[in-house]
Amino acid sequence: MEKSDNVKLKIENISLRFGGVQALSGVSLDLREREILGVIGPNGAGKTSLINSISGFYRPQEGDIYFEGKKITRLAPDKIAELGISRTFQQIELYTGLTALDNLMAARHVRMHTNFLDGAIFLGRAQREEVQHRRVVEDIIDLLEIEGIRKKVVGALPYGQRKRVELGRALALEPKLLLLDEPMAGMNAEEKEDMARFILDVYDEKNIPIILIEHDMGVVMDICDRLVVLEFGRKIAEGTPDEIKMNQQVVKAYLGGD
Amino acid sequence: MAMIPGDFSQSYERDIAIFRTKTQWVVMVIGLAIMLTFPLFMSNYWLSLFNFIFVTVIAVLGLHLVTGLCGQISLGQSALMCVGAYTVGVLSVKFGISVWACLPLAGLVTGLIGMIFGAPALRVKEFYLAMSTLAAQFIIVWVVSHLEEWTGGQLGMYVPPATIGGFSSASPSNLFYIGFILTIVMIAVAKNIQRTRVGRAFIAIRDNDIAAEVMGINLFRYKLLAFFIGCFFAGIAGWMWAMYLQNINPSQFTLKESLWMLGMVIVGGMGSTTGAVMGAVFVRGLDMIADYASAWAGTVFPTIGEQAFTAFSLIIFGLVIVIFLIYEPRGLYHRWELFKASYRLHPYAY
């Protein structure tokens, strides 16, 4: 696999405070065009805050974030989604009343263009668009092997499948950058293996960089090209999995000691 | 005859169609054709009742879009119907605009006014939004009854019937045809909006507004759009109401009506177009039965009097909503789905 050194996402020195709590302080990182970047760190290290800042959900007080050279620090979340940054959530945040299929179709929102008048008439433009995007969504359903549940309401699905639907929804947006916030939390070994396989499939098929937050070190070391370690809102290390394993500061952050 | 073990769509066009099989089409066309013959044999009383139901169905469909799909509680649907009705009245009487041309205008004006009262939805949710839409109910009715020069104030105003050639909506049977077509069109519009891009955006906002925003849906725009479309429906219902009564009056558009409509959405089943129609028809039917029952009870127990029993119908309605919320919060529509499923699977349990 050829590696490209073009920087897709550039985070420059961002700091994020909630009142007196310093969630992120001066974090910088570069994400290249072809890599899976793992973000690890103990609980409360600021991993989710980092992802929330990228997707526009939090506004860092200092620093800037550039996506494909464009500054996105002050953009609204829906504008950032339009640029092609898609994500999953730590706690599953699906549209519980919709079917798995409609959840994915809803994520096609930014790629669809019919307005409510086309929709009201349905025949013609809206129908064509529905079918055209349905094809795209069906490909994702195939990829993630959720054919059997496409017409099931997601609120009633078991946890593992909901996680998978959520990954599908993130993909349906046709992202140029995928942010995965603990996609394997609460899964057993087998489900984790499946999910890791899906993530690698997605990475290969869609050709997009991925930022992955995950606590399972085995998974992270196996599938990530590079790792960033956060502790108390600061970046304490960055490098390949092997470098990180040997890093004394990281070992200290995880295991304690002096 | 070859039996096919199920009904499988072979194209996405067919999979997303409302009526997926020929049988469904045939049943629908026959059903509609039978309804079209109603004016031939029904008395004006029954036709008026149907016209009243048409008005309700259209208004409830609007509320279904705002509350059932987008999850924004609106307690002012009846007042917005008032806007629609008075738009027809004022435009046709004071400006001499054709009553037919007033139909889309009533929808548009009501939609725009609805957006003003829906604007707080950007900041507030649920109870607080209910309070701010409640304001619509009182402000609109107050304004209409005080703009006496335009609206005739408390005395109300006369609205001319819609005519074309010798056809006049003044007769209940002619209005039945208009209302019938209008209702079918509005049901189709509501259903189509629900199953395409905008409808899914509404449901996304209802189910998870945080995720919706991160997945690229502009919350403010779509909440306002929901109010616009929902109130457009109210405006069309207002037009129909003006045609139905010919004499409109601010006191016809009460808070009670608005609450009833919300109740119809709940009883029918939140988030389903079919449910909204079912709810409207069911509650209006119940209302009619309660009217009959109270008149009958009044003759049986003259000492208590008919009035007391009429009040009873409100209690029954309240009871129905409570019972639905406790035992079938997903409404009549869900029951209907269960029935269909068990019918399909018969004689097996699942």
Protein architecture, described:
The complex is a heterodimer of chains A (258) and B (350). Chain A has two domains: 1-84 and 175-258, P-loop containing nucleotide triphosphate hydrolases (Rossmann fold, 3-Layer(aba) Sandwich), CATH 3.40.50.300; 91-169, no CATH class. In chain A, 40% of the residues lie in helices and 24% in strands. Chain A contains ten helices and ten strands. Chain A has helices at 47-54, 77-83, 100-107, 116-121, 125-144, 159-172, 189-206, 217-223, 241-246, 248-255; strands spanning 7-18, 21-32, 36-40, 62-67, 70-71, 85-87, 177-181, 210-213, 226-231, 234-239. The longest helix of chain A is centred in the middle third of the chain and has 20 residues, at 125-144. The mean pLDDT of chain A is 88. Chain B has 350 residues and is mostly helical. Chain B has a single domain, classed as Orthogonal Bundle (ABC transporter involved in vitamin B12 uptake, BtuC). Chain B contains 16 helices and four strands. Chain B has a two-stranded antiparallel ribbon. In chain B, helix 4 packs parallel to helix 9 (172-195), helix 4 packs across helix 14 (273-300) and helix 5 (77-94) packs across helix 12 (219-245). The radius of gyration of chain B is 21 Å and the shape is globular. The model of chain B has no long low-confidence stretch (mean pLDDT 87). The A-B interface holds A 55-57, 76-78, 81-82, 86-87, 89, 93-98, 102, 105-110, 112, 114-116, 118-122, 126-127, 129-131, 134-135, 169, 173 and B 12-13, 15-16, 188-189, 192-193, 195-201, 203-204, 206-208, 210-219, 225, 229, 271.
